[in-house]
Every structure is written in C-alpha cells, then in structure tokens.
Amino acid sequence: MDTVGKRLEDTRRRQVLTQAELAHKAGVSLITVSRIENGGEDVNPRPATIRRIAAALGVDAGWLLFGDEDVKRAA
Predict the structure, then answer these.
(1) pLDDT at residue 75 is higher than 50
(2) In a domain, 62, yes or no
(3) Are 33 and 64 in contact (CB under 8 A)?
(4) Distance of CA 6 to CAs 25, 32, 67, Å?
(5) Per the domain annotation, does 74 fall within a domain?
(6) What is the DSSP letter of 73?
(7) Would you call 37 exposed, middle or buried from its count of C-beta atoms within 10 A (0-12, 13-18, 19+)?
(8) For 33, phi and psi rounded to 5 degrees?
(9) Domain tally, the chain
(10) Partners of 62 in the beta sheet?
C-alpha cells in the first residue's frame, strides 16, 4: 500500500527535484518534506501544506493524500 510519503517521494524523484528544491518551490521547510516522505502511515500533514506541495509538483492534493489515480493531475 502506498503512503502519502511514498507518493510524494516518487513524484519528487520523477521530477528530478531534491527535497530542498521541492521545499523551496512549495514554500515549506525541508524538514517538513523529509518528515512526510519518511513518516510512514502515521504522518498527518496539515491540509495547507499538502496543497502547497501538490501545487509545486503539479499534482492533485487528494491524489497525494489518498492515491486516487483518477485525480492525479492538478486541474
């Protein structure tokens, strides 16, 4: 089962971004990106944080959180 962290890391790597680059692009801290990616299933990021990261990656926030492939790309 994929987690939000796994989806985040996979998407970030496919876009050839470091955690630091994504953090800067999304306007969040590096530790935030790292914690989400490494947090496993118990991570619970704030909705605003997920929206910022999703926008920076060009994906839907709902997909990033829940993995619904039907809504992967941001509108």
Answers:
(1) no
(2) yes
(3) no
(4) 19, 14, 10
(5) no
(6) B
(7) buried
(8) -60, -45
(9) 1
(10) none
* Parent domain of 58: 4-68
Q: Cα separations (Å) of 70 from 2, 7, 34, 73?
A: 15, 14, 26, 8
Residue 48 lies in a domain: yes
Reported as a single tens digit per residue, the pLDDT across 32-63 is 999 999 986 667 889 999 999 999 999 999 99
Q: What is the DSSP letter of 2?
A: -
Q: Is the pTM of this model over 0.70?
A: yes
Which DSSP string do the residues of 28-69 spell out, in sequence order? S-HHHHHHHHHSGGG----HHHHHHHHHHHTB-HHHHHH--G
Tell me which residue of 52, 54, 51 sits closest to 72, measured CA to CA: 54
Contact 47, 4 (CB under 8 A): no
**CATH number reported for the structural domain that contains residue 59 in this entry:** 1.10.260.40
Bridge partner residues of 73 (DSSP):
59
